[in-house]
Amino acid sequence: MNNKSCVSAHSMSPLAFRLGALAFAFFMILTGFFSLYWLYEHVLPIYGRIYRNAPVVETPYLAFGLLMAPPIVLIGIIGAFIAAWTGKKFDPPKNSFLLRLQTLMLYLCFKTIIYIVPATMILTTLTLLYKDYTPCPKLLISGSAWQLFWVNDENACFKPTRYINDHWPCKMIGEQEVCIQVDGR
Fold this sequence. Notes:
Helix content is 53%, strand content 14%. With 185 residues, it is α+β, with helices and mostly antiparallel strands. The protein has one domain (13-154). The strands form two sheets. It has a three-stranded antiparallel sheet with strand order 1-3-2. It is elongated and about 70 Å long. It starts with a helix and ends in a 6-residue tail after the last strand.
């Protein structure tokens, strides 16, 4: 078996490479929007609920990991568009702006996941403890062990019969259904 047949079997047509790079860019854009949306909808409201002394604060700890996504998504999008434009893999030359940008984005991504994400989780937990919130495992939705509900009133910690709206727990008391609004409004 010679090397030429091995190389040609694994080479890709320029059109297929460019289409693949565009598809990758599209999915990176979707990943970026999803990450920013999830941070905006599920992480940032935690601090508003703490500020307003909401009776229940839902903390999806796994979502804090998305803080590392913006830098890596940005360089992924740039690299994919450059690969689609040139038809070659994204490999910036030494001492170029793109190499410095790539290095910076990777550096920010890893530093964020190693330092900022755990620090944010710890500071959020300490803030909840300081504001007299206690963990309430009874409020956990079945199959969602990656999030935790914190309550500042022992009466808000109960085993719900169902959830409505944005994970508001509800319980039947006699003939009446009582629900706790967990967004702190």
